[in-house]
Amino acid sequence: MADWKLLLKGILLADGVIDADETKFLEQQIYADGVVDDEEIDFLVEIRQSASQSSPEFEAFFFEALKRNILA
């Protein structure tokens, strides 16, 4: 079975950029259960570090998710 994080990372970073549409998809997936857990934060950090560029929407989402995780 394929590792979903590796597969998703490959799709999101195929062009090296995390754009607004990809950010909307990530938001839906990360916020689906109402909790941003440590594994999801680790994944977002890895995606952010691997991208050559990220949209302002991704940056806002990233820091909001991090805040939710810390405050939970």
Series of H and E elements? HEHHEH
Helix content: 55-70%
Mean pLDDT: 92
* Shape descriptor: globular
Strand order of the largest sheet: 1-2
Tell me about the biggest sheet?
A: 2 strands, parallel
Strand content: 5-15%
Number of helices: 4
Number of strands: 2
The SS-based structural class is: mainly alpha
Given as residue ranges, the uncertain stretches (5+ residues, pLDDT < 50) are none
Distance between the termini: 31 Å
Write down the Rg.
12 Å
Layout of secondary structure:
Elements: H1 4-12, E1 17-18, H2 20-30, H3 38-50, E2 53-54, H4 56-71
Parallel strand pairs: 1-2
Helix pairs in contact: 2-4, 3-4
Describe this structure in words.
There is one protein chain. It contains four helices and two strands; from the N terminus they run αβααβα. By secondary structure, the chain is mainly alpha-helical. Helix content is 68%, strand content 6%.
Task: Give a short summary of the structure.
The protein is mainly alpha-helical. The chain has four helices and two strands; from the N terminus they run H-E-H-H-E-H.
Index terms:
single chain, 72 residues, mainly alpha, 2 strands, globular
